[in-house]
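Reproducibility note. Readers wishing to regenerate the assembly model reported in the main text can use the exact inputs given here. Chain order matters: entities are listed in the order in which they were concatenated for prediction.
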Amino acid sequence: MSSVKIIATGKYLPKKEIKSEDIEKENNLEDGYIYKRTGIKTRYYSLDETLEDLAINSVKDMIRKNNNLNIQDVDMIVTSSTTYNNMMPSLSFRVQKYFNIKDCMCFDVLAGCSGYINALDIAQKYIATSSAKNVLVIGADILSKNIYHDIKTQILFGDGAGCVLLKAIKEDKKYISNIKSFDDKNQILTCSMQHELFMNGKEVYKFATSKTVENISEIIEKSKEKIEDIKFIIPHQSNIKILEKICKKTGVNMYTNIKRYGNTFCASIPIALDELFEFNQIKENDKIILLGYGGGLNLGSILMEV
Amino acid sequence: MSSVKIIATGKYLPKKEIKSEDIEKENNLEDGYIYKRTGIKTRYYSLDETLEDLAINSVKDMIRKNNNLNIQDVDMIVTSSTTYNNMMPSLSFRVQKYFNIKDCMCFDVLAGCSGYINALDIAQKYIATSSAKNVLVIGADILSKNIYHDIKTQILFGDGAGCVLLKAIKEDKKYISNIKSFDDKNQILTCSMQHELFMNGKEVYKFATSKTVENISEIIEKSKEKIEDIKFIIPHQSNIKILEKICKKTGVNMYTNIKRYGNTFCASIPIALDELFEFNQIKENDKIILLGYGGGLNLGSILMEV
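Running the prediction on these inputs yields the following structure tokens for the assembly.
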């Protein structure tokens, strides 16, 4: 069995910056209303860029930041999104075509806003079984198109993309995942084919501040690690209130960037990972927990050694 | 590492039977025009049934045919389709909810008409790494909604769903896969978010009768099996002309049911598998090759011991 190592990361936020204060003005909300409730000051909206553009730009960022990294040896591309814009050829195939990567397996994963956890976990299974060596895992979402009718979603969501390149290595590195779907209350957070979002914020808050904490306890137990040895939890950036609650309940440091980007669904975890590496916040052998939760209902964590 | 065993299968075709002769009459085509070119006599169209209904009904068929099989121990549901009708919660989550399955991981795969091969291969990776024990893999597509404007697609496509239940076993059973995507010519077979299909038949024929044969040679070589020891190739049921050509080039028996169902995209391989088991055409320890090919472009084979 091979282990996985993150060897490069990238991110892309579209150009159009949207300030919370501007949304407040447009909607006659008091000053600071949005930041107080969500922790979000800015988010970015795609104007003429497609989901494909965002995904490709995140990979370009990764290539640029890593000495013009050659990605021709990528043998698997997995994408996750809740706002796909083509059924066939779907996103992963379009990324393959753009970068002209030969002999590569491609597929897209659809598993709600925490789909990035599933995509990463699938990639790890291919590496563990020596079925792939270099896997590009991309998360991208464009949520801005259909949120204007609903202030509850408008204040939260932004667009973005992030990617991680996983490599098979012989050295033993810890990797454990704990992913589950919940069959009750699956209507509290939905996205139609036209990318219309619906959210019952109260119910999502309840789910996201209870089941996540249980999930982290379980993965700590399964992994036989101590909670104090976890450097960071890197959670899906949903809402600062949810993140503060999880942080308080688990007692682990948490990386948040929701202030700058809002909730970007499948892009939030790879964007956060990219920043942690860029800002030298994590180093070789650190243990981190990635935590996804959201529509499905889907919930999952990955405890991995960097 | 655990091996995979197919322990149950099921299928569902919607109620409305559409005869090729009726399509011929409506379109002023000569008698026998469609059968001669495609090998298709009938296909089934969904009227008021959704993709979810088709998928669920295939699982119900599996349960019924297997002494009211209890599927509560399913710990993973993977679906494949090119005509998803919900971004979140997506198909696998809806199936989980319908059957009230607890503690189960769900996700959907999007990888063109041969996505079922990817879904099955992902399931095998989870079983091989002891990450799942009982995996339900469903393929379903509703292609009938947007094909009336184009006689080239109308004569070929039908709706359907099929499923396979994979179990982790300790006994060693051969399993090898060979899945690749091709980055050139990815516009020859496309499906929009509104499920509008486009096909360049000539180019698809060229791809499907050459790259498939290469892929099978490669998997035979990788597996160290002899081609004459393969009981059946179970191909994606695309068009009888393509299947006859692959059959002739490889020299292996091929199971076809396209005459009755047309091309049902992601459903075609699990429906064919279900029939092979139902008609006692394959037995324990037989070696078979599943072969998928289609939009993406995507291409993949799985050589497995039953």
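We highlight two features of this model. Chain B has a mean pLDDT of 96. Chain B has two domains: 3-169, 175-305.
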